[in-house]
């Protein structure tokens, strides 16, 4: 006889999250390799502007930036708060961040090389604000990580996660080559995990308006979304064929684009 769940709060959303991630074999990424081009891509949409408009910050705040990457969010935020500790698992990302901080004479940013899921309150301590910008989507021990984040934060926690439209043309390409689409777990999992932790979070969609543009088919292929390292020669040829089919050339700028090819991010935040 099957056992029915009568209380929604008994659903272990963290287990569903873990199952979905383990099912998605291409969730991992070589961030050291991606570091050089990430900064260039990060500047191409209005994500930063939209995120900053939602953050609640004070010039005397301390901020913990989880999954800071090469500093495209960290360094501008350093001008808005007292100090930032930036954590990332990629040595190359942190190397670039530290180089840029030195060039810009930014002295209130400290970096730590560490996987996000390994941070502890005893090691990190308290911060007024914890920000996890585009960095928790692939974390398997998500409930443990969220509990640590919540303990560290004194005032606010801000998290951004993939929105439902984020992988639109990538999903269509998988269908084009006959691959099954295995998506990252949605932001609703996080909302429900937090709810079961007694945290009643706010959920907002960042309305990204700009779509991605490319100078060439090669740039469109190597934009970080298609995981070229996991495609064989035939699949790479099919990707080129697919992009040549869907991308339109702007007659004024000469750039290639598709209006469905734009970022989609969900902001989840709560006040302590």
Topology:
Elements: H1 13-23, H2 31-42, H3 47-54, E1 62-66, H4 74-77, E2 83-88, H5 91-103, E3 109-113, H6 121-124, E4 127-133, H7 142-152, E5 153-162, H8 168-176, H9 187-196, E6 202-206, E7 213-214, H10 217-221, H11 233-246, E8 248-249, E9 256-257, E10 265-271
Parallel strand pairs: 1-2, 1-4, 2-3, 4-5
Antiparallel strand pairs: 5-10, 6-10, 7-9, 8-9
Largest sheet at a glance? 7 strands, mixed
What's the N-to-C terminus distance?
A: 43 Å
Radius of gyration: 20 Å
Percent of residues in β-strands: 15-25%
Give me the count of strands. 10
How helix-rich are the residues, as a percent range? 25-40%
What average pLDDT do the residues reach? 90
CATH architecture: 3-Layer(aba) Sandwich
SS content category: alpha/beta
According to CATH, what is the class?
Answer: Alpha Beta
Tally of domains = 1
CATH fourth-tier homologous superfamily: Vaccinia Virus protein VP39
CATH fold type: Rossmann fold
Helix and strand element order: HHHEHEHEHEHEHHEEHHEEE
**Unreliably modeled segments:** none
């Amino acid at each position: 006889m099957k056992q029915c769940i009568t209380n929604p709060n008994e659903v272990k959303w963290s287990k569903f999250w873990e199952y979905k991630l383990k099912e998605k074999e291409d969730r991992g990424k070589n961030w050291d390799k991606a570091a050089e081009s990430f900064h260039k891509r990060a500047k191409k949409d209005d994500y930063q502007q939209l995120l900053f408009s939602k953050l609640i910050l004070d010039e005397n705040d301390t901020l913990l930036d989880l999954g800071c990457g090469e500093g495209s969010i960290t360094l501008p935020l350093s001008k808005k708060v007292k100090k930032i500790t930036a954590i990332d698992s990629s040595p190359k990302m942190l190397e670039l961040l530290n180089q840029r901080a030195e060039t810009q004479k930014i002295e209130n940013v400290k970096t730590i090389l560490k996987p996000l899921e390994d941070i502890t309150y005893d090691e990190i301590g308290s911060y007024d604000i914890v920000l996890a910008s585009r960095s928790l989507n692939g974390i398997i021990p998500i409930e443990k990580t969220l509990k640590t984040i919540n303990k560290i934060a004194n005032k606010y926690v801000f998290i951004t996660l993939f929105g439902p439209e984020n992988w639109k043309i990538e999903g269509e390409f998988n269908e084009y080559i006959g691959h099954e689409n295995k998506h990252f777990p949605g932001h609703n999992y996080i909302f429900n995990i937090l709810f079961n932790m007694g945290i009643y979070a706010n959920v907002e969609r960042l309305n990204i308006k700009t779509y991605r543009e490319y100078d060439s088919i090669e740039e469109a292929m190597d934009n970080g979304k298609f995981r070229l390292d996991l495609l064989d020669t035939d699949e790479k040829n099919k990707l080129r064929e697919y992009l040549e089919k869907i991308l339109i050339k702007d007659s004024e700028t000469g750039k290639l684009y598709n209006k469905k090819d734009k970022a989609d991010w969900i902001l989840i935040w709560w006040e302590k």
